[in-house]
Design a protein that fits this description.
It comes from Oceaniferula marina. This protein is mainly alpha-helical. Helices cover 80% and strands 0% of the residues. The protein has two helices and no strands. The radius of gyration is 15 Å and the shape is flat.
């Protein structure tokens, strides 16, 4: 259980931070600083996964 919690801690904190930023930006009527559509989000995930693949191949 401790291993599961340690794996989930950073993603959970990132989600909470994202929610807070989204609420604040919406409250002050600014555009949300994130891709507006699923393809944009998937592009960011692809960049992250590409970086992981490169690190594993180059080591």
């Amino acid at each position: 259980m401790d291993e599961f919690l340690s794996l989930c801690k950073d993603p959970f904190l990132a989600l909470v931070a994202g929610l807070i930023v989204g609420i604040l930006f919406s409250a002050i009527k600014l555009p949300i600083p994130a891709p507006p559509a699923l393809p944009g989000v998937l592009g960011i995930v692809g960049i992250y996964l590409g970086g992981l693949i490169w690190k594993s191949l180059s080591s």
